[in-house]
Design a protein that fits this description.
The protein has 211 residues and is an alpha+beta fold. It contains five helices and six strands, in the order ββαββββαααα. 21% of the residues are buried. Residues 4-182 form the Lon N-terminal domain.
Length: 211
């Protein structure tokens, strides 16, 4: 079912369940936040990608205004809810300063593949270990979804946008696993190169071969 939603395009992909903190400074979006506070409406964040507003985005709710400035600017906390597709985009919502549009919800089929999920878990932990950030991500929760780790595996904005458009968890799992398996050899070789560069000019403790 379609509905009209205020829109706040940003050069970012927001995934359902994500908590996003924003600094609001433009008058049109200050007005949007004030409308959220007054009426409890939600708004959408479509990805601004390739110099245009993408047709896919994520509906978010205002959780809290963290700080108000004398200038009218605000720091806010939001939570992402669900993915939508824009059917009609208006640069200006009638009677408002901000954009808006007719949107419809995008299906989200939770058909996760447990085997693929376990492979993703192992691949992610290997990636973090190689990068030396294992202490930050010691263990993924048992119920993690693709959206939960999408910002932490080196996807480009275009790849994140592609992930947002997929309507089943199994498809998202495959995209993520293929990405990690593709970049792991590159990361390994990069780390080896860094170590070789560090050793240049230093005394080397090498074991001669037996022949």
């Amino acid at each position: 079912m379609a509905k009209y939603l205020p829109l706040f395009p940003l050069q970012v992909v927001v995934f359902p369940g994500e908590k996003l903190n924003l600094h609001i400074f433009e008058p049109r979006y200050i007005q949007l936040v004030l409308d959220c506070l007054e009426t409890g409406i939600t708004f959408g964040i479509p990805a601004y990608i390739k110099n245009g507003v993408g047709i896919f985005g994520t509906e978010v709710e205002l959780v809290q205004v963290e700080k108000k400035y004398d200038s009218g600017e605000m720091d806010i906390r939001t939570k992402a809810l669900s993915v939508f597709r824009i059917r009609q985009f208006d640069k200006v919502t009638p009677g408002k300063l901000y954009a808006g549009g007719q949107v419809e919800a995008v299906a989200d089929v939770m058909d996760e593949n447990i085997v693929i999920k376990n492979k993703i878990r192992e691949a992610v932990q290997e990636l973090y270990s190689i990068l030396g950030i294992g202490n930050l991500f010691l263990k993924l929760p048992e119920n993690f979804r693709s959206f939960d780790i999408a910002h932490t595996i080196g996807l480009s904005l275009e790849q994140e946008y592609m992930l947002l458009q997929l309507t089943t968890e199994s498809e998202r799992q495959l995209l993520i696993l293929e990405h990690i398996e593709r970049i792991l050899p590159v990361v390994v070789e990069t780390e080896r190169l860094k170590e070789r560069v560090k050793l240049n000019g230093h005394f080397k403790n090498l074991t001669p071969p037996n022949f």
